[in-house]
Predict the 3D structure of the following.
Amino acid sequence: MKHVRIVLALTLVVLVASLAVFFVEGVTTPIIDDYNFEQANAAKFTVLPTLSSSDDITPTTAYDFTGTTITELIIVEGKGYIYTAQFQGYQSQITYMVAVDLEGNITGYKTLLQGDTPGLGAEIANPDFYPQFVGMSTDTAASGDFDGLSGASVTTGGFKASLAKVLAFHKVEFEGAVVETEAQKLARWKQEITVSGATFTDVSGDYTLPAFVTAMEFANDGSSDVAVVYQVVFDGRNDIVEYWISFDLATNEVLGFRLLAQAETPGYGAKIEEEARWEQFVGLSLDDALNSNFDDIAGATETTNPWKASVEDIASFHQATFVGFEGGESDAAKTLRLIGEIYPTADTFTEVTRNYAPSHDVRKVYEIYNGSDFLGIAYFVESIGASYAEVTLNQFVVGIDVNRNFAGFRMFSLGDTEGITDAYLEATFGASFAGESIDSSYTIDSYAGATFTGVALKNAIDKVVAFHNDNAIGRPDSLDASEANILAAFPGAATYESIYLDHPYAGGIYNLYMVYNSSAEAIGYVYYSRADSNASVGVLFTWGVNLAGVSQQIIIINNAETWADAQEYGDYTGSVGIWPNTTWLNNFEGVSLASLIATPVDSVAGVTNTTSGMLEAIGVIAEYHIDNSIGGAE
Amino acid sequence: MELIAIAFGAIFVNNVVLQQFYGLCPFLGVSTKKSSALSMGMAVTFVITLSSIISYIIYTFILKPNDITYLSTIVFILVIASFVQLVEMFIKRFSSSLYSALGVYLPLITTNCAVLGVAIDTTVNSAKIFGGNENPTLMMVTIYALGISLGYALVIFLFSAIREEMSAYPIKRNWQGIPIALITAFIMAMIFIGFGGIV
Amino acid sequence: MAKKQKSIREIFTNGLFKQNPTFVQFLGMCPTLAVTKSVESALGMGAGVIFVLVMSNLAVSLVRNYVPREVRIPIYIVIIASLVTILEMLMRAFAPDIALLLGTFLSLIAVNCIILGRAEAFASKNGPIKSMADGLGMAIGFTGGITLIATFREILGAGTFLGMQIIPETYQISILIQSAGAFLVFGILVSQINKIRMNRADRNEVA
């Protein structure tokens, strides 16, 4: 009974409530609808004062408004056009109404709906905002040349863009404006970034263009070539970005920038197509271009960074190509020339600075190749000089080759006191440490009267070596021995893994493996190395060393030596056998590496090329093993 | 990306308590201890997110197509009330530990403006918070509701931590309790205003 | 314990001062902070609350003897929600500017703790006339409270009162108009009112 009462009570209340609600709804909805309608219509009378209630205000359905932000257009016969448009403000959709008369002037404007921040974006609905539009020509309005909303840049920007689109539509449909074709736009752009009325000559064939320049044209003003336009591509975040950039041939300033194609993320990298961003390139000095001193796209580093690198590259190219005309060698060209002097056999320099964390002194890093042979690294270094009175900068190029020796040194410029420090500019200075290993305690010359400069340079060179080591630069890819050869060098080993990258690079040692037994316990190491020998290919071998620093087996992998029987060719007491099975190699098995260093094995007379080479390689490994405390070896 | 912007906006920029002013009664009432604030925050997250989803579904598939959106207020309230009742019964029966932690707060949440407010904001007034988009997707609504409730939990927890600290200090009699809490909230609100420039 | 029968007048003034919902009971906080940006919206909200509270107290009082205890809360909710929906529609039809101004908070009157609170605490136990008086008192007390806050915020924050510029724009303290400012003004006002009440209580004790 109780439950029935409950249900009854509930149902009754709900019924009564619903009835009341429905009743009120029936009464109020028509009123609400009327009100909304009136609101919208009242605006029409406000923006087009010549409108009268007898005019037909049915919106037209004859046009496609896609991309114009127009939501409705009413063509009032003989009087004008009423546009309703909607755009995204800072935090709400903003709807407005603007009317244009038959002479191409705006007759009125009103904001209909907005939900933006009071005092900021919401000011677009402040009636004080409206009067400026009355009588404004559509050209002025479309160009955005009117007061926006102070402090509300997003809303203002969106509004001006929307208005421009609405009026552009208007001009095309009703004022017979001709829409510019893509080709016309591009032609216009080319003129804008060079000189009005310019004619263009394609000179792509006259220059060796780097891969990132797809076209190059001179702009002629009627009497001479005054500017050069490069068409440049770079890899943006999503896809290739293409643009034009022009330089003045006399001042080498940037004249302009135009984006041609991009597929970056809208709202982020895609902002590169905002024409407002291109303004900053007009009059940009070559120096600024070389250092990409222009604004980032906030929040779009994956587009901004390659964009900046690209501008730096084209500026470099321009500098290398044209600034040289003036009679001076460009910095870029000089750097490359000096590197060429340090690595005479090199034919390719690849700048890889971007791959490494920035350092105060190391400004540029180049990988040097002859064909596909990796020769070493060249650094362009800028360091603080030793002058008492002021901060000076010394710049030099230093090379570290693949064997971790100094390949050479060339002073680029010395900021310290002229006259006294001239000795450092001579080739003898660089020669004083060229060829020395960077792992050794190398010394450099220091000249009397300018010893502080010498100290400063030594410090700088030390920093380069540290940079080289810290970034594990210039390591050719480690080579791999076969599994059979690795496991054979260490009896009892079942599995292995390369650990070479965890340790410094040593020339001659191709790889370093840690080996494990069948229970996956680490039992020792295997070196894969090459020794100089009688044959030009050298001797490739693997050599096992256990955790106590005692060698295991040595496995000779190749056999290109020309001597076969040690006894035939050499005075080899106590050994028998043909290379590579000679028992001379037993000297390297089952002995501690430390003892090999302490009491070196003798080479075999008559076969010194091979045996000395082997001994040197063994020595390198033994010292490497101990110096780097591999496995805790002391 | 848009979803992240919605979430960030919901948690920080348009923070439910400090900016939109929803959920103030429990904010001022249940924030004297960190533990109860945390429980309240969790309960709120749960209720707001789920009831927003349910309200959205009902609005999109029942109310809107039949043009009876003016019944939203009533329908949502009944949905929320029943839902909370169901949840409370469920928790009470199956987890007494959870009930002792959360259960007491659930009825309070029924009349929490935040729950009804978020339900209405994501449906009837959706144009206002989704930048003019009158038809948000279920994913957008869910992310927004989650963001709102996380913002709520965050703020109520911070607030309770501050109040717990403050309880050790002597305060003038007429400022004790609600007034000093309000001033604290004022300072917190000002800090959150700073988030407005980020999104 | 004998309950002292209160007169209609006493019931009415109770809601105005002694048990003022805004400054004493601290009910209905959400609208208190949200709609006090301008005096106009505060008055609009107040009017709405007066309507709903009086009508709901009346309705609850009329059905109080017929509603089973177990379902009383859902029934109150249905009554209040329906009244709020009616209010929404009436406002949108006859005062659309205010309806827009209040926004979601118009609908949120349905969960305003004051209304459900009075339904449960008073209207379910008293006759219709008394209930209406209680509702009117509480609602006017609420309206007065939020209007007071709004007055401070609008005059000091925007220099206007009901839209009319009183103080020149340069003297505005704009933080008061923003959300954060609501907390500040409300907090200060409560502390001062507390002081008055405490002084009065002290004096009563001494006397």
About this structure: The mean pLDDT of chain A is 82.
